[in-house]
Amino acid sequence: xxxxxxxxxxxxxxxxxxxxxxxxxxxxxxxxxxxxxxxxxxxxxxxxxxxxxxxxxxxxxxxxxxxxxxxxxxxxxxxxxxxxxxxxxxxxxxxxxxxxxxxxxxxxxxxxxxxxxxxxxxxxxxxxxxxxxxxxxxxxxxxxxxxxxxxxxxxxxxxxxxxxxxxxxxxxxxxxxxxxxxxxxxxxxxxxxxxxxxxxxxxxxxxxxxxxxxxxxxxxxxxxxxxxxxxxxxxxxxxxxxxxxxxxxxxxxxxxxxxxxxxxxxxxxxxxxxxxx
Length: 277
Description:
Oligomer: single chain
Number of helices: 13
């Protein structure tokens, strides 16, 4: 009979008195102790963990998007490409999370929905920050966060900065000059499609070998928005599958509100130019 393996004999550390362990490094006591169902319903744990893990992935997305924006403002854009690719993969993970949540039926959700009160994913300040970074800016969306001064200040600060696309357009401007109205636009509102921006990006796509970095940047942005759109679509279908056309717990129209969000374009010229190539 084979003797049970003793990992210590293979060099594994087995004693952590005074040493940092895996749980210590990751603060697992805090992370795994952060789930507090209040209804007693079996499926509430799924609901809590799905949203908490989504918030963790969004935290990483913000970390990467902020660094990518900074990199795009420097002399070498290339490090931003890896960061943007990583954000696309993050949204792939967020998309997969809906698959787990969809195992919860409408009957399951009704067992604890009333316990949520007015809380809603609509109030996620990290999601709002991601939208602001990507350029979907609306000062009215600050109001749900007015009760938390630090969060309100964070989001206001984001609205005062150029969006990721604004910074990308500055990089484009270095090769193909853009109008002052584009470069000095009001940062607090979304970018509006501009024919001169579309023409500049089209020139990049018609000669990719001559402008490879801008061409790669454009495709990384399209890839990111592609995954972001899929996340929005999966959000809509999951909500419709679970609550139908009821209003959301936060007071929005639920599915009707989310469907309107499907029409938002973050980088419009990069999508529209494909028709004219």
